[in-house]
Structures are given as structure tokens and as C-alpha cells.
């Protein structure tokens, strides 16, 4: 920082960007979404968790990870010794993409164009927060940051240095655990918790 230059107020800047994102029309998803769902958490968080997109409850409430997948994430974070209140959570895509199924709205995977249209918002969040560690939850979030050739199945649990964070790692998305067959679900959840424990250990080792 140059002499006399004022420090950036990260919280104010994030709030300003969030307000701008509310009027985003960079892709068609805004037409059927209730609202833009921006990230939430401490402005100086050491770790940022990134999911794919808001779900039904996130779209209605305006906050990330407040639906069933969010509740499972909270449970797993607690088991791994991580405090949700100290984590910034966001999504690669800020609008809920869905298709009707009777009176329900079912998640629909965002396209590469929609992911690319939202990427400037995600990059702005990471630029302001400058986290020590970024955790991608699922393939969409991981590939939004690392490119389409990145495979969570191959790279899961590895820690990688990047230009936008000191460290990056990828794991499953909690929603995929909820979709697992009942006889396999708890095993998948415990593997997810094990990944989160590695995140906790990595953060503690850097303190």
C-alpha cells in the first residue's frame, strides 16, 4: 500500500458488489430466479467454500447453503471441527437454475456459458477476501476455477497452489451425498467429513 493510501474496507466492498449483482442480467438465469444469491460470511475469512448454485430454499431466502445441503454441510463442518461462522460460503453461479416438476422446482445444471457469465462475481469475491484456502464443493465449482479438464474424482483432497488463493482443494458437494443410495450415504458423508478435517488441519498448521 502506498503512503497515504486508505485501506480497502472489504466488508463494504463486498456489500457494494452484492448490490450490483442483484441487477445482473449477464445470462438468462435471472429471468426465472427469485433473486441473486451472493456469498455470505466474514469479509476476512481464511477459507472460502464454493458450491455450484443456489437451490430452491437459497433462492427464496437469498442466502447460500440454507437448504437441505446447507444443513448437511453445517453438520459435517461441526464434525470436522470447523466453525461455519468463520467461513465465507458462496456459489459459482448466483441464480437458481431450475425446471418445473408439478408444483416443485428441480435443480438443473448450469451451462458453461452461465458459469462464465457469473465468474466475474466469484473472482471479485476472491480478490477482495484473499483467502488462504479455497474449497470447491463439486465439479461445477472446481471446474469454474480450474478449467473443464479438472476432475474432482482424481484430485479430491489434494492441496494445490493457485494465483487467486494460497491453496485450493476440492471435494464432493453436500447435495450429492443426499442423493447417494441409502446404504452408501453415511459412508459418503464420513468421507466428506474426512476431507473437511484435512481442511481444518491445513488451516491450523498455517496459524
Instruction: Indicate the overall shape.
Output: globular
CATH topology: Uracil-DNA Glycosylase, subunit E
Uncertain residue segments? 1-6
Q: How much of the residues is beta strand, in percent?
A: 5-15%
Strand order of the largest sheet: 2-1-5-6
Tally of structural domains: 1
Determine the oligomeric state from the structure: single chain
DSSP helix fraction = 40-55%
DSSP helix count? 8
Helix and strand sequence: HEHHEEEHEHHEHH
The CATH architecture would be: 3-Layer(aba) Sandwich
Strand count: 6
**Alpha-beta content class:** alpha/beta
CATH superfamily: Uracil-DNA glycosylase-like domain
CA radius of gyration? 17 Å
* End-to-end separation: 24 Å
Specify the CATH class.
Alpha Beta
Q: What's the overall average pLDDT, rounded?
A: 94
Biggest beta sheet summary: 4 strands, parallel
Amino acid at each position: 500500500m502506498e503512503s497515504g493510501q486508505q485501506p480497502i474496507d472489504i466488508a463494504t466492498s463486498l456489500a457494494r458488489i452484492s448490490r450490483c449483482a442483484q441487477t445482473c442480467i449477464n445470462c438468462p438465469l435471472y429471468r426465472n430466479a427469485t433473486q441473486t444469491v451472493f456469498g455470505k460470511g466474514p469479509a476476512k475469512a481464511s477459507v472460502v467454500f464454493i458450491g455450484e448454485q443456489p437451490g430452491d430454499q437459497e433462492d427464496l431466502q437469498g442466502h447460500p447453503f440454507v437448504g437441505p445441503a446447507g444443513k448437511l454441510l453445517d453438520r459435517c463442518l461441526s464434525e470436522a471441527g470447523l466453525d461455519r461462522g468463520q467461513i465465507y460460503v458462496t456459489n459459482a453461479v448466483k441464480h437458481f437454475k431450475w425446471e418445473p416438476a408439478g408444483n416443485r422446482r428441480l435443480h438443473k445444471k448450469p451451462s458453461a456459458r452461465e458459469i462464465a457469465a457469473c465468474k466475474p462475481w466469484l473472482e471479485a469475491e476472491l480478490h477482495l477476501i484473499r483467502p488462504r484456502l479455497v474449497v470447491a464443493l463439486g465439479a461445477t465449482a472446481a471446474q469454474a476455477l480450474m478449467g473443464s479438464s479438472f476432475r474432482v474424482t482424481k484430485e479430491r483432497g489434494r492441496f494445490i497452489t493457485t494465483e487467486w488463493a494460497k491453496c485450493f482443494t476440492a471435494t464432493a458437494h453436500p447435495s450429492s451425498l443426499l442423493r447417494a443410495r441409502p446404504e452408501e450415504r453415511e459412508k459418503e458423508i464420513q468421507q466428506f467429513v474426512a476431507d473437511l478435517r484435512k481442511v481444518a488441519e491445513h488451516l491450523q498448521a498455517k496459524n
